[in-house]
Write a structure and sequence with these properties.
The complex is a heterodimer.
Chain A: E1 3-13, H1 16-26, E2 29-32, E3 35-37, E4 43-48, E5 64-71, H2 74-84, E6 91-92, E7 98-101, E8 107-112, E9 151-159, H3 162-172, E10 176-181, E11 185-189, E12 199-203, E13 210-217, H4 221-233, E14 238-244, E15 251-255, E16 262-267, E17 279-281, H5 285-288, E18 291-292
Chain B: E1 2-6, E2 15-18, E3 28-33, E4 36-41, E5 66-68, E6 75-77, E7 83-85, E8 98-100, E9 105-108
Antiparallel strand pairs in B: 1-9, 2-3, 3-4, 5-6, 6-7, 8-9
Classes of the chains: A alpha+beta, B mainly beta.
The structure holds FE2/S2 (inorganic) cluster and fe (ii) ion.
C-alpha cells in the first residue's frame, strides 16, 4: 500500500491559545481553522478538547485525536478501504478521506496526500577532501535565523501491546519494521517513503496510551539547534537534546509542550529500502543516542589572560 | 536558608520557579494560594530527573487546580504534592519547607 506518511495530526487540547502560540513559535504557519502547516503543507490541527467535530478521545485522555496519513492516489485509498472494511467500520468523510481505528483504538485518517513536492537544498557543509558543497562566498550560518520546519516526520505512540500494533500496521497497511528496541517497540515506515521511521511504538501501561512525541524534519543539524535555541529563548523547556539518535541517525531536540506530549525537531534521518535488515538493540541511554548535548546561555572566554 | 523572593512576587493562584543555587535551570517552585505557599522540588517522580513545566513557571493546569507535569500529564494536588492521575499515580512531589518573614520575604530550607 502506497502510504507516504503522516500528513496531519489532530489535537483536542485544554489551552487552545497556548497551543497555537507554541506552534507559531515552533515555526509552523497558521492558515486558519486551527491548522498550522510546514513548508510542504503537512500540518498540526488544534481544537478545543470539547469541540464536537473531533473524533472521540482515547480512554487515557490523550490529546492526540487523529493521525491522518497521506497516500499516493485514489487507488491506494480504495485498497485501504477494502482491507480495513473486512473487520471494522470505515467511514468516508465529506472530503473523500477515510476514517477508521487501528487495533489499539487510535483514530486514523487516510487521504490522497496534500504534500507539496519540495525542492530545496539540505544543509550544506564543506570538508577537506570533498568537493566544495557550499561554494565560494556562501556563508554557513546566520547569527539570527528562524528556520522553518519542512515536513511532518514521525509520530510516536505509547501503546499497551506493541506486538499487536506492529502486526496491524505491517499486515494490514504494509508498513515495514526498520529497527527495534527489545521489549519496547519497533520503528516502522510505510511503503511510500524511505525515511527510517514515520511511526515508533513504546509499550506502556494502558492508562498512558497516547502520543509520546511528534516531529518535523529540518534542513540539517544547524537548523535543529538554531530553532531549538529560539524555543529556549522564548521560555520553552527542553526535554532532551540536542543530540543524535543511533537508530535512524536523526539529530534531535525535544521540547515539552502544552499538547500533553513532547514536540521535537529532527534532521538528517537515514533512508532505507528493501535491502535493509532490521537491527534490534536493548533500550536505554547508551543505545538511544551517540551523543547528548545540553543548552547553555551564550558564553565566551572573557578578556585577555590574567598577568 | 535561601532567599527566594518577596511573597508579592508570586501572583495569587499562580506558581513560580526558582534557581536558588544558580544551576542554570529552576530546581524548585512555589505555588501561592491566598497567604499560603506550597513549595516542591521541580522533579517529576515519574522519570525522577525531569522538570515539570513546558514553559518557565507553567506548573499549573489551565484552571489553576492542579500541578501538572507536561511530559506525560501527571497531575498533583497543590496542597499535598500527591500524584492523583498519570503514570506516577500515588507518588508524591518532594516538598520544601518555606519560611515567610514579617516583611514578606520568602525563604527556603534546602
Ligand atoms: S516525567 Fe512527569 S509525567 Fe512523565
Ligand atoms: Fe523522534
Amino acid at each position: 500500500m502506497n502510504i507516504i506518511g503522516p500528513d496531519t495530526l489532530v489535537f483536542g487540547v485544554d489551552d487552545v491559545d497556548a497551543c497555537e502560540e507554541y506552534l507559531k513559535d515552533y515555526g509552523l504557519e497558521s492558515v486558519g481553522d486551527g491548522q498550522f502547516i510546514a513548508l510542504d503543507g503537512t500540518s498540526v490541527i488544534v481544537a478545543h478538547k470539547d469541540d464536537p467535530s473531533l473524533p472521540e478521545p482515547l480512554a487515557s485522555g490523550s490529546m492526540l485525536r487523529k493521525t491522518i496519513y497521506g497516500v499516493a492516489d485514489q487507488a491506494t485509498l480504495d485498497a485501504i478501504a477494502a482491507e480495513l472494511d473486512k473487520d471494522r467500520t470505515v467511514k468516508v468523510l465529506d472530503n473523500g478521506s477515510l476514517e477508521a481505528q487501528d487495533d489499539a483504538g487510535f483514530v486514523l485518517g487516510f487521504q490522497v496526500t496534500i504534500r507539496k513536492p519540495l525542492s530545496m537544498p539540505a544543509e550544506q557543509i564543506n570538508a577537506p577532501g570533498a568537493s566544495s558543497m557550499r561554494g565560494f562566498n556562501s556563508l554557513g550560518v546566520e547569527k539570527l535565523a528562524t528556520p522553518k520546519p519542512r515536513s511532518l516526520s514521525h509520530v510516536v505512540y505509547f501503546v499497551p501491546d506493541f506486538a499487536k500494533l506492529e502486526a496491524f500496521y505491517s499486515q494490514r497497511l504494509g508498513f515495514v519494521t526498520t529497527d527495534r528496541f527489545s521489549h519496547v517497540g519497533p520503528f516502522m515506515r510505510p511503503a511510500g517513503t524511505h525515511d527510517h521511521h514515520t511511526l515508533f511504538f513504546i509499550e506502556t501501561p494502558p492508562h498512558m496510551q497516547g502520543c509520546e512525541h511528534f516531529t518535523f524534519h529540518m534542513a540539517g543539524p544547524t537548523e535543529v539547534v538554531q530553532a531549538g535555541t529560539n524555543m529556549v529563548n522564548k521560555g520553552y523547556q527542553s526535554f532532551w537534546g540536542p543530540g543524535r539518535h543511533i537508530m535512524g541517525s536523526n539529530w534531535f531536540w525535544y521540547f515539552k509542550s502544552p499538547f500533553g506530549c513532547h514536540i521535537e525537531y529532527d534532521a538528517d534521518m537515514d533512508l532505507h529500502d528493501e535491502h535493509w535488515t532490521a537491527r534490534e538493540m536493548l533500550p536505554g541511554a547508551d543505545n538511544s543516542q551517540t551523543f547528548l548535548l545540553e543548552f547553555r546561555e551564550k558564553w565566551a572566554p572573557g578578556g585577555p589572560p590574567q598577568q | 536558608m535561601v532567599l527566594l523572593c518577596h511573597i508579592d512576587d508570586i501572583p495569587e493562584g499562580a506558581a513560580k520557579g526558582f534557581d536558588p543555587l544558580q544551576e542554570g535551570r529552576d530546581s524548585l517552585f512555589v505555588v501561592r494560594q491566598g497567604a499560603t505557599l506550597y513549595a516542591y522540588r521541580d522533579l517529576c517522580p515519574h522519570y525522577g530527573e525531569t522538570a515539570l513545566p513546558w514553559r518557565k513557571d507553567g506548573y499549573l493546569d489551565g484552571a489553576g487546580q492542579h500541578i501538572v507535569c507536561a511530559s506525560h500529564g501527571a497531575r498533583f494536588e497543590i496542597d499535598t504534592g500527591l500524584c492523583i492521575s498519570g503514570p506516577c499515580r500515588g507518588q508524591t512531589l518532594t516538598g520544601i519547607t518555606l519560611e515567610v518573614t514579617a516583611t514578606g520575604q520568602v525563604l527556603a530550607h534546602l
